Amino acid sequence: MRKLIILGKEITALKLSAPDTPVGKYAAGEFSKYLEKTCGIKPVCCCDCEAFKITLNEDKELSRDSYRICVCGECGISICGGNGRGILYGVYAFFEKYAGVRYFMPGLETLGEGDIVIDEGFEFTPPFEYRQSDWQCGNDFDWCVKNGENSRPIPNEMGGHIKYGIFVHSMERLTGTPQSQQPCLSDPAVLERAITEVRGILAADPNITIISVSQNDNYNYCKCEKCAAVDEEEGSHAGTLLRFVNAVADNIRDDYPNVVIDTLAYQYTRHVPSITKPRPNVCIRLCSIECCFAHPLDDRSCPENNAFFNDIIDWNKICDRIYIWDYVTNFSHYIPTFPNFGVLRQNMRFFAEHGVRGMYPEGNYNSPKSGEFGELRCYLLAKLMMNPYMSTVEYYRHMDEFLAAYYGEGWRYIRAYIDFTCAEAAGGHMKIWDPPFSIIPREKYEALEETIDNWWNKAEEMAGDRLEAVKRSRFQWRYIKLMLHPDAVEGRKFREDVEAADVLWNEWRKLPEKVDYSKEPNRWWE
């Protein structure tokens, strides 16, 4: 059994106290559960002078979601949070740091090894106030709280969440304009209707702290004389949108001082207007949809990334609350390899260093499971959103720990595949809709085909009870193999396996019932 050693002394009895609130009771239950799991000690709640004291508390002097762990020989250990979530984050960080507990995926955790040695405390404030990734494997509330994500609808007893009144592409809801169109933002009647809708949403739910007033998802912006004149004056189509958003923000500011109006800087509205500035209660959500993800976003030699770099610099000059909508999967091809692991850490650090306050990395959100490496990305991005300044060594330690737990003893062969694909992709450009062979040329796969087959074979042989996860992630290589060597029998079997595993092919389209399986799989829609 592992020993618990605090300030050089072995502890065998603990007294635990926590706030008499739903989240306080939940935090106490979680602390007790992991204490017993890691070292076999069951904390007591009654008075016991011989027991070492652990106190969970809320400290309003700490900022939201922050926590502080203090270690004292006389007073015991205190875990304080700036809010309920902060207390819980402190509890989970306590066991992660001191006991080596890892919260990889729902149902997949490791408890660490060796004695639990605590000599000093620490304090932490998440650099980003808003943190949400976008895979279904990350929908689990328990997993979200353990990994610091705070925007899914987490129950209040588990710390609650940042609540949106309505999410992005909201003009259809607010103005009645269909998603295939955009409203006229110079029309006073359109503005009046949007304000009425926003106020109705806020009045219905006092827990809402942010609401999106943002363009529908298309390029059909209004070209009427008034809108065109504003856009020309501003030097950006963001001009008409931001004036509209500011008007909504001004209208609700006094009645809802804690509510932020969120809008998009997306596609045709990405560039900063030259005149209008966001109001203090407006958040700009800047989107990286056009960028290259083979290169870091601060790579000034990459044309698309250089343009984005300039945009984030310019928005920072006029806005104090920037959120990012990032893109971290291939939306046209969910299953083939999307080798962006070499830039995830650098990009998250880039965002933190450029004034970003909220992160939303969008993944294959509508696929129940990933046939590639979605689960790994989900975990790594959660760690990065909590600590965007982590070193390269720490980043790859997180990766290796996950691979070992998720794929079993043959995980190093999967790491070899990740390293190979990331190295090959780094020499070119990679967008979020690119077909596989434009990311890594056919001949690169052909040259190493036998070796890659061996990597996946070895990973399966050594997987143990993690075989299902290895086989599912191997879908990406089976897809590439079918592109190299189309085969009707293997193609039909591949489709059956993919659909039985509850993995989607892409964001938008299902495969037709009748398919010519003798073709390459990216042509099965023909």
Structure description:
There is one protein chain. With 526 residues, this protein is α/β, with parallel strands linked by helices. The chain has a domain at 4-124: Chitobiase/beta-hexosaminidase domain 2-like (Chitobiase, domain 2, 2-Layer Sandwich). The chain is 40% helix and 14% strand. It is built from 18 helices and 16 strands. The strands form 4 sheets. A 6-stranded parallel sheet has the order 11-16-15-14-13-12. Strands 3-4-6-5-10 form a 5-stranded mixed sheet, covered by helices on one side. The chain has a 3-stranded mixed sheet with strand order 2-1-9, with no helix packed on it. Strand 5 and strand 6 form a beta hairpin. The longest helix has 18 residues, at 22-39. It is globular, with a radius of gyration of 25 Å. It starts with a strand and ends in a 26-residue tail after the last helix. 47% of the residues are buried. The model has no long low-confidence stretch (mean pLDDT 96).
